[in-house]
Amino acid sequence: MKYEFCELADVDLERLIVILGGSENVLMAEDYWHAHDISAILASQQTVGAQPFLLVHQYDGYFTIRLFSPSKTLVEDSVKVMALRRMSEIFGPPE
Asked: What is the pLDDT of residues 55-81, one digit of tens each?
């Protein structure tokens, strides 16, 4: 089975979000992730940020590969969350 990317009208995007469980369950990657051009990476024309994420799908002997890296904001937010969790483990939850 071959998967294609598609453009959605606003109403279709809203419907898809509802099907996926609502906006509280859906992370909109466009705000938090950078999509990279793999051919530009291989040609040393583009660099990849920290913590890259490779999405690979195989079908009929072929691969579809997408490369993403988190935005600086997402990395910083993740570090803050981890630090707060660690502090709660050491000192207990905030009162």
From this structure: 888 888 888 888 988 888 777 777 777
